[in-house]
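USER: If only I could read backbone structure tokens as easily as an amino acid sequence. It would mean a lot if you studied the pair and described how this chain folds. Here is the record:
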Amino acid sequence: MPLIDNRTELITLEQVLDAPTSSHHSGAVTNSSKSVNPVLRLAAATAVGSLGLAAGGTAGALVAMEITGSMQAAGVPLGVLVAGSGVGAVAISWWTRRAGRRAALAAGYLVGVAGAVTTVAAVSLQSFSLVLAGSAALGVANAAVFLTRYAAADESEAGHSGGTMGLVLAAAATGAVAGPNLLGPAGALAHAAGLPHVTGLYVVAAPSFGLAATLLARGPQAPASTPRSSTRQAVHRANRIGSPAMRRALFVLGAANLAMVATMAIAPVHLVRHGHGLTNVGIAVSVHVLGMFAAAPLWGRLGDSVGHLVVITVGGGLISLAGVALATASPAHGVAMTGALAALGLGWSAAVVGASAMLAESVPVADRPRAEGIGEASMSVAAGGGALLAGIVVATGGIAAVGLAVAGLGIGAIAAARSRRLHSGARSWRVSPSDAGLTG
């Protein structure tokens, strides 16, 4: 329903997101309006785009079963999506340096539209290879959803990057929570349109990604990175490679995602096998997801106030606590298991928000897109490894072994973040031309 002001002029969503907050008396634009409104646009794009994530994560296994009739193929689309997300993160970061951040993110979402349409066609044609192609394209949109938090950091005032990144990351909760619950209604919509019921979430994903791309493309575009001389290129390359802070941030991102994915790859099955109903399992997973996203703004603001290292430490501690709980709690004790998953979600959120802000601050501004792409790619690699290793570990040592491994990852994240070399990282990336061997 359109908004109408006292002159009965129509105000669109675009105008609401773009309009600056002005002084009541003078109409002067405040400093906060310059940063808040672009961030709100990014959050809106993330919220809308995240509705499409359930297509690959939830419906991918159903589509694989529909076409192949084999349980062994059920996890393949998700694996391809994860790989596509890693490649997509690098591709989007590459395009950001040439076309600007918002244009690159919008392009990533448009690739996701193509992926959703391809998958719908694949089900109609009963082509599993086309399903995998569509899943890879959906992975690119997945990367766009989560890379948007770094665009929010660009729009923030100095010292407030954590809060804005947390706000945009929290917007992803819209799709993370609502998306899977649309499985039934979206299937009915697809059936009414003459499409297979199982394609419902893909039918929702296409316009969701398209609207997210529109919101980004129609917003104010930051200029693309300007070309540098060969000297500047070599200096900044040395800066990126030589930054201990960047390497520590990448380790924390990978460790947190590995711990989360490894646990969630086996926790629902583990709960079902020990007598918990699907409703209770769904509640446990929902609590975990809410912990991942809903608390992100709080972690971001805390990091802006007391330092991102503190937030990473808290996150690593919560991940370790979750691991110990998984290793020691009785599988029949649903409350304890749900508490462990909640702690894991909160720990993941704190570690990712803190490490993302640390990563953004550890390299020169012009080199952030590349560093951020590497960060997302490392998270994708960790996700793929976590899903694979979880089954092997639980088969050999049970859920206790997985819990202890998760606890170790949390401790490792804290140790890496608090390494002595990290504290000199903010200075170490400033490499002079002489240090890079470019004098003379």
